[in-house]
Design a protein that fits this description.
By secondary structure, the chain is an alpha/beta fold. It has a single domain (about 5-30, about 40-265), classed as pyruvate-formate lyase- activating enzyme (Alpha-Beta Horseshoe). About 35% of the residues lie in helices and about 15% in strands. It has 12 helices and 9 strands. It has helices at about 5-15, 55-60, 90-105, 120-125, 140-150, 155-165, 185-190, 210-215, 215-220, 225-235, 245-255, 260; strands spanning about 40, 70, 80, 110-115, 130-135, 170-175, 195-200, 240, 280. Strand 3, helix 3 and strand 4 form a beta-alpha-beta unit. The N and C termini lie far apart (about 55 Å). The structure holds iron/sulfur cluster.
Amino acid sequence: MTLINAAKIRKFLENLPYPAHCIHCQGIDEKAENPVHHPSYEVTPSCNLRCIFCYSRIAELKGAAPKPGYYGSLNPKAITISQYGEPFVVGTERVVKIIRKLRERFGEVRIDIQTNGTLLDPEILGNEADIVMISLDAGSRESYVEIAGRDYFKKVVENIRRMSEQTYTAVRTVFMPGVNDYELERIAEIASIAEELFLQPISIYRENTELMRRLDVERAESLGEYIKTAYRLSEIAEVRIPGCLLLNMRWFLKEYDVGDLLLVRRDAFGSMPIMQRDWQFSFD
Ligand code: SF4
């Protein structure tokens, strides 16, 4: 990398806004000692897809999937629906009811939905949620089927477009070198109509055998590969990096050079995706 590129990447990391979803999360609170993700309402651990990288399926396999209900502080500023499973498996009307009940109970609160975008009905969801994060990990129908296990590419692209017209929409893409890196530009083009392209570094679970077979682990663990990809895609879409990761990178850059940051390897392997907050209640 030339000096000029290193300077550009430093500037990129210094100026990049936090993702809207990360605002109010302890992950971007410099003073939080053991930061946890902001509260979530888990609708169901079930999902209609079979994504090759899914941590929720691993949690289910190991009997660790959280039961439905609300997890975390009873004084929330933001609530995520849901961190596990696909919420719209229960139907869009039911999710809208949950959103309304959460607002009744907590008043001023931001509601973020994480979804695979295949089952939601944009007509019914409208602008009920403040942020809708739709997963898209492939840039073509063929690789979508290979990665997600079902043929919903066109439907998801259409729902990204329709939700972007109604509310703050982020496209969430897992960076998987060897699996989807050759299609990231195409994904970024699709995401350019949304407010954000949230580029998620991969967490690897050995039980995801198809991912293990295809992933270039060396590159998946390289922070340099990840940062340079985010920088490149930022010319196409409004790229965002997970807030807690960005905060740590900025800390690193206070002491070290950007060239050192690009050489850092992260341990991408996880053993068990565990819910870190306590169950509080459920609307059922
Ligand atoms: S990516 Fe990090 S900072 Fe953002 S919501 Fe998740 S835990 Fe919080």
